[in-house]
């Protein structure tokens, strides 16, 4: 992970061409509370050979947990430094390299294929992210599938849930603390969406 939120280096302009500003550059390289919550959920989530996609993986904590469990996981992000950071973090944890694909949410990537479970943390940070993530799920989720999102209460989860309901998913929501000072009713949310037969029992990981 990066040592602080000020580190920035984009000498060839790759990040800028991807729409990543200097202010956003270091955001991927931190362990965020919602990312920790997602990793904890993936530690407990029932895995039965599903093909799993993590969106906006950052340093890939949840994907690394799944890799440790032997899951079939693909990590994805748009940041140009995500792949080397992910490989380094896997090596630090004595794990095989996690399968990684660079993915822009506004650009179709047909070769990515479809997944049984799509996961993400803190991806609803702007109003239009709900539509973008919804479109990614429509392109890459099997008919019988699950989606699990951890959100720190930024205010766009209700909009996202409406879009998921329109895609035929049911939703189960749990309020979760984001840190030790987040007292009930907690601002964090663990959102579990299920669609189709065989997509799970609809219960969030305990």
Write a structural description.
The chain is α/β, with parallel strands linked by helices and about 210 residues long. The protein contains six helices and seven strands. It has helices spanning about 15, 35-45, 60-70, 80-90, 130-140, 155-165; strands at about 50-55, 70-75, 100, 115-120, 140-150, 170-175, 190-195. A seven-stranded mixed beta sheet has the order 3-2-1-4-5-7-6, sandwiched between helices. α2 (about 35-45) packs parallel to α3. Mean pLDDT is about 85; it is low at about 1-10 and about 20-25.
Name the features.
single chain; 206 residues; alpha/beta; Rossmann fold; seven-stranded mixed beta sheet; 7 strands
Biggest beta-sheet profile: 7 strands, mixed
Question: How many domain modules?
Answer: 1
Beta content comes to: 15-25%
Provide the CATH top-level class.
Alpha Beta
Can you tell me the CATH topology? Rossmann fold
The protein's oligomeric status is single chain
Distance between the termini: 28 Å
């Amino acid at each position: 992970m990066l040592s602080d939120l000020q580190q920035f280096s984009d000498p060839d302009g790759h990040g800028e061409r991807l729409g990543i500003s200097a202010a956003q550059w270091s955001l991927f390289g931190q362990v965020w509370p919602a990312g920790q919550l997602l990793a904890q959920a993936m530690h407990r989530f029932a895995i039965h050979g599903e093909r799993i996609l993590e969106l906006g993986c950052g340093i890939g904590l949840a994907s690394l947990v799944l890799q440790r469990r032997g899951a079939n996981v693909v990590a994805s992000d748009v940041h140009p430094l995500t792949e080397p950071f992910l490989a380094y973090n896997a090596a630090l944890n004595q794990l095989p390299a996690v399968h990684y694909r660079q993915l822009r949410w506004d650009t179709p990537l047909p070769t990515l294929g479809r997944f049984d479970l799509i996961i993400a943390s803190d991806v609803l940070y702007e109003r239009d992210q709900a539509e973008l993530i919804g479109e990614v799920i429509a392109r890459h989720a099997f008919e019988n599938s699950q989606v699990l999102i951890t959100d720190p209460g930024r205010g766009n989860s209700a909009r996202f849930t409406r879009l998921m309901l329109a895609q035929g998913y049911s939703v189960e929501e749990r309020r979760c603390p984001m840190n030790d000072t987040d007292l009930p009713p907690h601002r964090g949310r663990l959102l579990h969406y299920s669609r189709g037969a065989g997509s799970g029992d609809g219960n969030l990981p305990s």
